[in-house]
Every structure is written in C-alpha cells, then in structure tokens.
Task: structure prediction
Amino acid sequence: MPSGGLPLIPLPTNCPGCGVGLDVEERRAHAYVCTCGHHFRMGADAWIALLADPGSWQERWSDIRPHDLLDWKRPKPYEDTIEAARDDGLNEAVRTGRATIDGRAVWLAVFDFRFVGGTLSIVAGERLARGLEASAGSGVPYVLVTASGGARMQEGVLALMQLAKVNGAVGRLHASRTPYISILTDPTFGGVSASLALMADVNIAEPGAAIGFTGARVIKQATYADLPKGFQSAEFQLAHGQVDMVVPRTELRRGLAQLLELYR
Amino acid sequence: MKGLTRSPAGRVGVGRETLSVWQLVELARHQDRPYFLDYMARLAPDFVELHGDRLSADDPALVAGIGTWHGRTALLMGNQKGRNLSDRLRRNWGMMHPEGYRKAIRLAHQAAKFGFPIVCLVDTPGAYPGAGAEERGIAAAIAGAILEWFTIPVPVVACIIGEGGSGGALGLAVADRVLMMENSIYSVASPEAAASIVWRDNARKVEAAEQLQITSRDLLAMGVVDEVIPEPEGGAHLDYDAAAQALDAALMRALQPLLEEDPKVLLERRYERYRYIDSLIGAAEHFGPKVGVPNESPDSVG
Result:
C-alpha cells in the first residue's frame, strides 16, 4: 500500500477501539487503521488516493450538480444543506472516474459519507449509472467503495428511483461479462445496500463496518428486540452469506490487484 | 420545465374535494381499504395462489398466483395486509421478509417461461425492519429483485393501491407501467421514518409528508407514475366494486400496448424508463434529454 499521499483526516485523541492515544501522521501512513484494527472512516478523496495509482485518477461528471427539486425547506432548506457540504470542499455523495490500480485500468466510484451522509441522490445515481454503462461498454472492471445511510430524503421518491436506475445498469454490467468488485465500508445501509452495493461479483467488507438494510436503532424501536453484539457487522454479514470476504484496508490494494488479475 | 409547483398549504385536490396531505396518508392506510385479495376476487375470481420461494419459506405478506384476467392467464401478485389482529400478525402488516422478494422473482421467471403478463399491486409500509430479515439478507433480496425485474421479458404493470413505502415497495414496482390509485402514497421512506431521519423525531411526520411529495398527483407530475386511477367518491374503501372496476380498466389500458411489444424492445424501454426517470422535472438541462422513451403515455387522469 502507498505510504503517504492520503489527505489528513481529523482523528479523535484516543482510538474508540482500544483507547490508545492516536498520532495522525502515523495512522495516515497506515491508511487510517489503528494498531488494534479499528478502521477510521475515510472520505472519497482519501479512498481515491489509497486505491488509484498516483496520477491515474481522471474524474468524470463532477460538474453535475444537485438541485432542490422538491422545494424542501424544513428543518433546513435543502439548498443550504448542499451549500454547506460544498463549502467543506465536497462534491456530492459519489465521485466517479477512470483510474488504474496496480497498473490495471478500472472505473472507480466512491461514496463520501461526509456529503449528506453519503446519501443516494439523483446526481449520485447519475454518476453511478454513467460509470456502470461506460464500464459495461468498454469491459473495464468496475470498482465501487460504499459509505451511505441510504437514499436522500430531500429528493423524495426520485431518490428512491435511483435504486432502480443503478441496478438496471448493474444488470447491463453483468450481461457484458465485466468484473464488478464492491468494497463495503462503515456504514452501508438502506437504499445503497438494497441496490448496487451487494450485487457485485465480489463483495468485500471492511473489518467492523456496519452493513445492513434497516439501522439497529430503528430495528430496536420497531421490534423491541435485543440485538446481539456485532449485529450487522462485516463479520456478521460474512457469516450470513452476504459478503465474500472481510479484508483489512492495509491489504485491500493488494487483494484488489489479485482479483483484477484473476477476473481479467 | 423548472421544478414542481407546490399546491398551497400542503393541500392537494382529490376528486371533488380537497384533503390535506396527511388526510391522504390516512386514507391510503385506511383499515377498510380494499387489499390485494379483495381486488383478486373481482379481477380474477379463479385466482390460484402459489406459495414459497423454494429456498426456505413462504411470505404471507405477499400473495402471488395465477388467474384468468381478461381471457388470458396472468401472474398476479400483491401485498396483503390483515383485517383483524390475528390476520395482521400473520400478514405482518404487509411488510415483506426476504422470502417475499424471492418468491416474487421465482414466479416472475415462471411467468416469463409461459409468456404470462405480470400485475403487481403494491401496498406496504416497507420491508420488515426486523433482525430476522437482516440475518436472512433483506438488502440483497430487495436489490436482487430490483435487478431481476429488468430481465423478465414479459409485460409488467404495477399499481400502488395503498402504501408504497421505500425500497420494500420498489422491489415489487420495477415495471413497464406504474400506476397509482388516487388516494395512495409512494415515498422514499414512510413519513415517520423520514421525520426520524431529518428531524430525529418521528412526531414531525405531517411536515415530512408534506415535503416529501408522496401523493398520486405529485408522482404523476414527476413522471414516476404513468397514470392515476380515480377512486369512488370518498375513497376506495366505500365501494370495492367501483374501485376494482377502475383498477381493472386502467391496468388493462396500460398492459394492452405492451402485449404486442417485442420482448427485446420491452426490456430496453423498461431500462430507459428508470434510467431517465429523473430527467423530467427541470433536470433535463443537466442530465441531457430523456432518451428513447416514447412520449405517448396512456390516458392520464388529472
């Protein structure tokens, strides 16, 4: 894995996994994974820096912008929500483009949880669908990194329609016999787990990542159930047949390169 | 087209009267509203239910089977809510588990085998938010169903007859034509869930419902549904026969042109229906024109 190059991410003083004091520079050099194995969340910029070979990232369709189509005003105008995220230097919940990973060409799409919870929106769906179609058309493998709370409420049922839009494109990708690898990171829920996230040829989850359809809080509210420790963790999903493997972030690039070679 | 125009003060015209959005939500959830089996008794009296996903279980929240509809055999399926408490428990309030989506797709493939058209009547608050559903892969079951619907080479017509809640509803509503009963709702999340997400307080459900644009008029304006089916005055629960008659006619009107379609063209258009579904309302200038989708739509109401 590349030793520097990742953007700086603010970390807590101590690791929530083991309590040890954290040195940001040191964690950055280890892809923001603690010595105890706790994986800190990374934004799209960090994921692109981690996975794409240096200088290989060519972003596409970054100019497509979200719009307040429903005239959403409360509790916060949707336009303000979007502006605030953009002021933080973020460009929608999904970024997509061409890159190489260990010299192999891929289409790469990365969710960014910092942009309205990584929610699937019209723009996110459009970027995903265009990338999937381009991947299907060219036979260049599609690599996805997810981190999302689900569909974006402020775009209403049109956000829900993105599930069908992207899964239609996933179907075409499979029909074109193009490899599809999905990397599920913390958290992946709702409309993203119920659309393209789990439909890959190989589903890879990050250790400890929460992955599911309905969040644990809502399940508890709705059913008064006691949920077991580790419920909806990556390891839980491996045991329940939903993912092929759980791979530490520090070994991910090597693992991806091997898979891309085997599915060539 | 620039955005949607909102009706004043969150009120929408319904038939001959004006109801608040929340009154509409309550109508869509009315305990006497006709359910799937009420419609089947009128649309296809010889309906034969087929059970099970062939993997592990049968999901009573989804009733599916074959029956004679307008002189031909069709695959007919829909959510079933219960009328009394024991029935509601058994039907799980129309909330499906993974087995329901797997049953739907098993039978959709069977319909393709025999060339039966498919009718899906959606009436669910959403997929079941429980631990068992998660353990048995509800996310992948819904995702897999959405994906599979794009490969079923026979006409599929869906109608929201009550509640169309979230991905749980969409798993039954990826179709060539999607209709809505006038007093039904279709939403990215239930108003309660949306309020819980954006306000962290599900008591703000009324405000959420007003902002989400979930009424049949809203959905028609957005181009997400193709036709709104007028209900008997006061709502479908007041006259099952008239509601069934209107539903029957609208479903047939939607299906008719699809029956002559070449299966390849059918699947291509189904893909394009969803690929460009968000291009209608003001987004065209950003996403490009709605490509390849025929402009002629069935007779629209409203």
In short: The domain at 8-287 of chain B is CATH 3.90.226.10 (2-enoyl-CoA Hydratase; Chain A, domain 1). Chain B has one domain: 8-287.
